[in-house]
Design a protein that fits this description.
The structure holds 2 protein chains of 2 kinds. Chain A is mostly helical. Helix content of chain A is about 75%, strand content about 0%. Chain B has a two-stranded antiparallel sheet. In chain B, strands 2-3 form a two-stranded antiparallel sheet. The chains are: A mainly alpha, B mainly alpha.
Chain lengths: ~450, ~300
Amino acid sequence: MGAGLESSTTNRSSMRNRLSSYWEPYSQVPWLGWLVSALIATLLEQLIGTPLARVLGLTKPPALFGLVIMLKEPGLIPSALVYVLLIYLVPIGLVARFGASLANKVAARLLDYPVVLSALVHIALLYATLHLWSGVSDYRLLVVKLTLIAVIVTLSLNVVNGYMGEFSCSHPGFMALGAYGASVFTVLLFVQDSRFGPPLLPLPLVLQHVLFPISLIVGGLVAALGALLVAIPSFRTRGDYLAIISLAFMFIVKSLFENLEFVGGPRGLGNQPDLATLPWVFFWTMACIWIINNFVRSILGKALNAVRDGEMAADAMTVNTRHTKMVAFLFAAFWAGVSGGLFAHVLRYINPGTFGIRKLAEVLAMVYLGGLNSVAGSVVGAVGFNLLSEALRPLEIFKWIIIPVLLIVLMVFRPTGLIAFTELDVGELLKPKVKPEEEVEYAAATR
Amino acid sequence: MTFLLQNLINALQWGSFYALIALGYSMVYGVLMLFNFAHGDVFMVGAYIGFFVSSGLLAVAALGFVALPTGVMLALILVLTLIIAMFLNTFVGMAVERIGYRPLRAAPRASAAITGLMIGIILETGNLALFGAQRRSFPTLIETATFQFAGVSVTNKKIMIVLVSLLLMLALHIFVRRTKWGMAMRAMAFDYVVVPLMGVPINLIALLTFGLGSALAAAAGILYGVAYPVLDPYMGILFGWKAFVAAILGGRGSVLGAGLAGFLLGFIEIFVAAIFPSTMRDLIAFSIILLILTVRPHGFFGEPYSARLRL
């Protein structure tokens, strides 16, 4: 029996060795390489996606990596798998594998210039990939936009729940404030509306697009103003009062908009101009990641962590705890407001019911899925949750059994989420995985 | 005056639901320092269990094994339903503790709140998947009789609901104050770390706390079904969150406080709905709560707590 156990462990470890030896070449691929190969895969889909789908018996290219099709029509699982394999997995794998050394060289060369250039190249590649990928269908475009917006709101809630260590329930409320603030701004200025009358500032569409960020900032500021109402009473004491007061605040905001007739009351507000294009949503998401990442790595962010880990100790170490918490909370609310503004202009219709308990559960799930106190975790959490949620859509209500069960299992095994308590070092991401001189050695060694 | 009295009676009834649910939140929060976000849905499950138990009992009674006058029979069924549903719902609460909270004892408290939230969603969706989206109407267990006192109409249902909930609250109060188990619960609320070292079985107490709260929630569900005989899978959400706010308003772990705050919330809601348009109910009720919490952040009977250094 002992021997059997031993052999099974050796089997397992040899399997792990073999798996890691397969993975070995891919661990040399820098982010640049992955982005380029993803771009090539999406280009390939543009070129041969539709004919290939026809040949495989699919009516059109699978919208979400074939996930939806697999659940909807189990008979098409093989063709969807083949499609995903041929269009995504094989090209990405090949390009990443064999382009790794070139990508490493380029990434190393890019770092000779200011870091900004390298970062911009990466972001541009990511944008190009998303643009091409979402260009295939409106559904994909919507999913991409909503996912990017979810990234913003998840990050902003992580600032409060993760970095500050309080439990805030008011993010749907801030989103609602931002959504209504931004919507009223754009509808009032740019659009002929039955409720708000003729446009106050009838500008050509191009200028409207240029001025769109102002409306988002207005939305964010409205949300921050609302956050002030929560922050003043709740940060006088420690304890769980932020959770209660923010919860009450969420109900107040929802009820307020239901009673405000000039924004449509419970019927909601529509007719937002179509300004939230993919470039703007992408831009704001990247700006949010960049700014929040810098915020949590700044002195203020470290003070925030100190307040979370021991408020008295932080106070003794000259951290102005109340000021720190206030600033962070208003900052988080601002971004939640921005995401609300974007959300309103993507859907072009909002009603108070959207920003209720269900929204709260979703946002909390995204934060805790990804991981507390981690920018990368929030991105992973938001993207993962949204993809999962879209992929399970054909299951209808069972989706809301599967997702909670998955989340409970995750919480039991990793109570702080997938990628918790990490710092996102952008410089590290941009670096080549293997330095050029090591590359030569590595090639020599493998030969 | 009549207006005031009439609304006072309505508010007593409405507040007893909140009070019963708030007690469950308050006990879990007091003993374990955790938010049991599944509690609103446990209330919903309790109401459904009550619905099935009472329907089953009615069907059995219709077979005619026992010959009793209809009124007595219905009252008996109501009492039996209350007892059976409270008993069964205890296990729902214990399951919530066992699945969602015990594995996360050592985890950050917010993670446990998330599992609670997710269990709540599972309960709602599971109910929807099992029994469909149509609303259920709770069987009539009390023939409504209306009494008139000085222009104020009182139904026997309202009297029954208020009396039963007050009795349950009194029973809980006595349990927590006078029994050994209650003492263990209070001890755990006092010090979570040292008490297990004194031989108090922490897991058992946690189960007991969740179970008791769920029994009260089931009672609230049945009383709600008697008063407003329409059940749907999402009925627990808003009720639960509001009762949660009431529980905190009462003060950490205070049975008396949670009961009082539940009634207070009922009063505020009923009077706001009576005076203003009823769509303003949540807006004004929560604004008042926000004001109260601003003045007394630790609730009515909670201990003040501050993390600021006093030098």
